[in-house]
Amino acid sequence: MSKLSKIFISFVTIFFLLVGNAYSDKIKIGTEGAYPPWNSKDASGNLIGFEVDLAKELCAIMKHECTIVEQDWDGMIPALLMRKFDAIMAGMSITDERLKTINFSQGYADEVASLAVMKGSDLTSLQTVKAISLSKKGGEVKKTLEQLTKALAGKTIGVQTGTIHQNFLESGDVGNVTVRKYKTQDEVNLDLASGRIDAALAAAVAFTDYAAKSGKPVVLVGPTFSGGAFGNGVGVGIRKGDNSSAVGKRDAKILRDFNNAINTARKKGIISKLAIKHFGFDASM
């Protein structure tokens, strides 16, 4: 074999090794680490929570080597598009607006939303309805939104910025309320507890988790919300992939792998078990 042939073979070998490493079974998953019990950090700074445990289970099913990385919520989708990681598991609801930019796996859990106030607030008198879906346009939904519009008039409501909860409050469905936006849910909770806002809107479990851990008398009021602006459950966010390039094919494969793994985890009862552990009830879809 000539020296030139050996050099060529070495070059080809190195090339395929590099490509293989770039498109291997190693996956990075982005999460916020500040939205308990979906995702948070322990006293040592380690990422914990329902989605952290679920991500590990899904990766084991997919036989992917996964790394879970922390990312601020407001930069979550931009970081995914910039390929800082390959998937999002951060309590992110599947909405039509987000589907314009990224793909989602099938939903793995429901994230019903609720208003929360401190015990003694005049808003505790709000009529409580078990649940309303904004996907429905019936009389009960209309009546409930009218009641909320009247009750929330002149109130300041806190939400985490860039969320479905902010979108709902700014949609006009409950009138022209004053919306105060925060970078993290922890900041929302602290200002609610200190009385700097009249109420807050987030996933119901975010408030029940905070109340249980802090001992603060946080009370859920009004209905729980789903559908419409609140999306269709929580799923894994993934870049839009296609077959036009190796990178696009990889993204498309990651989506298929997550969907298959979620199906398997659901059938085996893994998602239900983790939901009950972290939420206290079965929030699996």
What does this structure look like?
The protein is globular, with a radius of gyration of 22 Å. It is built from ten helices and 13 strands. By secondary structure, the chain is of the alpha/beta class. Helix 2 packs across helix 9 (246-267) and helix 2 runs antiparallel to helix 10. Residues 3-23 have low confidence and may be disordered.
Task: Tell me the layout of helices and strands.
Elements: H1 3-22, E1 26-31, E2 40-41, E3 47-48, H2 50-62, E4 65-70, H3 76-81, E5 87-88, H4 96-99, E6 103-104, E7 113-118, E8 132-133, H5 139-152, E9 156-160, H6 164-169, E10 178-182, H7 185-194, E11 199-203, H8 204-214, E12 218-226, E13 237-238, H9 246-267, H10 270-279
Parallel strand pairs: 1-4, 1-5, 8-12, 9-10, 9-11
Antiparallel strand pairs: 2-3, 5-13, 6-13, 7-11, 7-12
Helix pairs in contact: 2-9, 2-10
